Amino acid sequence: MTKNIHKFGGSSLSSAQRYKSVAGIILEHTQPGDCVVVSAAGKTTDTLVKLWQSYQQQDTHVIADILLQLNNHQIDLIEQLLQANTKRNALKILNEELSTITLLAQTGQLQEAQLLAHGELWSARVLAAYLQELNVDACVHDARALFTLNDGQLLHEQNTQQCANLIAHNKINVVTGFIAANTAGDTVTLGRNGSDYSATLLANYCHAKQVCIWTDTQGVFSTDPRKVSKAIKYAKVCRGQANLLARLGNPVLHAKTLSPLKNTDIKLSVRSSFDVQASSTDIVKEGSAKQKRFITTLQNIDLLIVENLSEGDIAHVSQLIQHSLHHFSQNGETYLVVPAISTHQVISYFEGRANINESSLHGCAVIAPEQDISKLDLLAINLLNSHAIEPRFAHQDSGYILLLTDQVIDSDILSILHDKLINKGQEIALIVAGLGNVGEVFIEQLSTQVERLSDDFSIKLVGLVRSQKMLFNPNGIGVSQWKTQFQLEASDYQNQTLLNAIDELDYEHKVIVDITASEKFSRLYPDFVEMDCHLISANKYAGTAPTNWYKALRTSISERNLHWRYNTSVGAGLPINFALADLQHSGDKITRIEGVFSGTLSWLCSKYDGSIIFSDLVLEAQKMGFTEPDPREDLSGRDMQRKLLILARELGVELNLEDISLSALMPDELAQGSWDDFLSKKSQLDSFIQEHAKRAKAKNSVLRYTGLLEIAENEVIAKVGIAYVLQSDVLASLTPGDNIFVINSKWYSDNALVIQGPGAGKEVTAAGVHSDLYWLVQNLR
Ligand SMILES: NC(=O)C1=CN([C@@H]2O[C@H](COP(=O)(O)OP(=O)(O)OC[C@H]3O[C@@H](n4cnc5c(N)ncnc54)[C@H](OP(=O)(O)O)[C@@H]3O)[C@@H](O)[C@H]2O)C=CC1
Ligand SMILES: N[C@@H](CC=O)C(=O)O
């Protein structure tokens, strides 16, 4: 049974390397019986159109050039992808076909559609042959045997039967997009971007479950992400809004692509074939997702008034000019928005029923939930006016506003409109992992913050995660009753359950707040990022992961325009990462950071005077919520080593944990075994500390645990360890629990910049996590 239809466009097949990537996707994402619809490789259709025009103009030089170009491109693909007999065979067929084209042209028998069809035929054949070489049982279908039209109308019943007869249930069916046949057996095309339409038609005829359009963008965005960096990628868009978008300037989907899905349950996804890990946008049935806000731009259009416009006219004209069309009524007139380049063709089609009302227009369309439209209309006009743009024509309808102007809406204006119209009132889903010392306080402080930020965003807590249990509610968990709700409703925690729940969320923004100390949880970050989640970490594991993993994560975050905040991973609530980033952005160069970066070790060393045994102080620090879940992470120096690595990476220094030398504040032996084992041997820790305190005293010094990062031209010194500091030193009089960062830089060379304050504690840390959340929300605006 055919379950899924996958469609790959020209850009996904533009080179041999791209074919290999597509084959990789097919291997991973398809099963026997699925169909793979392909467009012509790269710009092949454009080249074939030029060839057709050159034949019309009988321009022999250009014809020869184009034929050579097509031949070389195909030979290149065949040579790189196929082997032995398959290759020889493919080259022979290509040669024969190009000769036939020449012969047909010379005898005046060449037809345009028949010529254009070669693009899809070539890609389908090369892809299927390449898949076969990879041992995939693939077959090729020429869609002219599957889709028949009579007088421009698809013969649905006949086509369903043809698909049932020909589509193989035990193979991967590679199908040519874009082309069909008429009842006389001649080739016809389904119009520009017809391959998407082929895919949804095939899904309808084969009763498929899902169509996946693999393209060069990651999905459907609130606006063009190439023009507006804060464009929001939506996880779900309803078909009605997708249809409007297609008609009002968004090129990702075309209105006719959606038509075969009407009255079906077939799911449509838009995914990137260039970034396979990225999440998709799903186009779903009305009511299955909330209505979103979009802004699209229109350029070089004319506005026609048409008499007695029918749906049939729209279908015919769209086919004629190969463009999705939008029409609407206002004050008793019916308007049609057409690309200026096609106005002449459209007017002739209507034979006196259409007149130009306004010409040479540009503008924008805002699509939004019905109830927001009037408010947004006013706001949009005011914003345009404030930039000296007076709409020449305005139309407000259910679910959208159309503002047509003399000026082009450029990226700058579009960004402003997007910020003020689209990026307001958006919903942010918050998933908090780690409900320990810091996590609990973070949630207690949450309701005030949610209220404070509510002007711009509606923040909803949707997930709470502990090591063994999780609570997830896409509609929101009551912040004031979270504990009771967690006790009563939490289910067993599993990574996949959590990931599935996040993937299903229909929110504009998703934020994972990691307040665990779990390495295992941090390993899920790449999955979160693939689902377009922003990250806030108090957890230090991801920030100190091996360089390759860390860099890949960073790249993936920046490619998706996401944010990762982790200020509390060093210095708890102190603004150390902010300060370093700020200095660097302002042109400073940091050369040295020295100090005490552990609240726990600061507290322990400052408190210890021999009157209370050291291990009892450790237990007290643990009780106060200062220490890591296992305080040996602190005593081993490992936690401070992590902080130093985070600081180093913040400054662009490429280090791994092993590059930071470390001496522990406990005997190595105590690092092994369980916490109970440690407690049974804690006297060893006490003797160890006693001994160091004695040695320090002998030098008129006190025992401290310090870190140093020194960045010279050719050398980086990075170390954490025990230090004996003179009584007169600033580190000797540090308030217990305080961190101190002494920073030297180009600007702070002789007189260092000092940041000092509490470096651990649940309240300050939770407040620091809120500061990261606040920063993030400000940057989503
Ligand atoms: N305490 C402080 O002063 C500061 C802490 N931090 C950092 O904040 C983080 C939390 O510290 P703290 O609150 O003190 O730690 P706690 O040990 O009190 O809390 C840790 C929480 O994480 C949960 N958890 C553990 N493993 C997983 C997992 N695999 N998946 C999901 N949840 C998990 C635990 O679940 P369960 O409840 O089931 O055990 C617990 O709720 C740490 O990374 C720490 O380094 C940063 C700055 C200062
Ligand atoms: N154990 C840590 C807590 C914060 O990271 C410390 O004491 O600094």
TrEMBL record:
Pfam families: AA_kinase, Homoserine_dh, NAD_binding_3. Residues 434-566 form the Aspartate/homoserine dehydrogenase NAD-binding domain. Keywords: Amino-acid biosynthesis, ATP-binding, Kinase, Metal-binding, Methionine biosynthesis, Multifunctional enzyme, NAD, NADP, Nucleotide-binding, Oxidoreductase, Sodium, Threonine biosynthesis, Transferase. It catalyses: L-homoserine + NADP(+) = L-aspartate 4-semialdehyde + NADPH + H(+); L-aspartate + ATP = 4-phospho-L-aspartate + ADP; L-homoserine + NAD(+) = L-aspartate 4-semialdehyde + NADH + H(+). The keyword NADP applies. Its EC number is 2.7.2.4, 1.1.1.3. It comes from the Bacteria. Residues 576-773 form the Homoserine dehydrogenase catalytic domain. Residues 5-271 form the Aspartate/glutamate/uridylate kinase domain. InterPro entries: AceGlu_kinase-like_sf, AK-HD, Asp/Glu/Uridylate_kinase, Asp/hSer_DH_NAD-bd, Asp_kinase, AsparK_Bifunc_asparK/hSer_DH, Aspartate_kinase_CS, Bifunc_Aspkin/hSer_DH. One of its GO terms (molecular function) is aspartate kinase activity. Pathway: Amino-acid biosynthesis; L-methionine biosynthesis via de novo pathway; L-homoserine from L-aspartate: step 3/3; Amino-acid biosynthesis; L-methionine biosynthesis via de novo pathway; L-homoserine from L-aspartate: step 1/3; Amino-acid biosynthesis; L-lysine biosynthesis via DAP pathway; (S)-tetrahydrodipicolinate from L-aspartate: step 1/4; Amino-acid biosynthesis; L-threonine biosynthesis; L-threonine from L-aspartate: step 1/5. Its cofactor is a metal cation. In the C-terminal section; belongs to the homoserine dehydrogenase family. In the N-terminal section; belongs to the aspartokinase family. Bifunctional aspartate kinase and homoserine dehydrogenase that catalyzes the first and the third steps toward the synthesis of lysine, methionine and threonine from aspartate. Homotetramer. PANTHER family: HOMOSERINE DEHYDROGENASE, PTHR43070. NCBIfam families: asp_kinases (TIGR00657), PRK09466.1 (NF007003). This is Bifunctional aspartokinase/homoserine dehydrogenase. It comes from Pseudoalteromonas fuliginea.
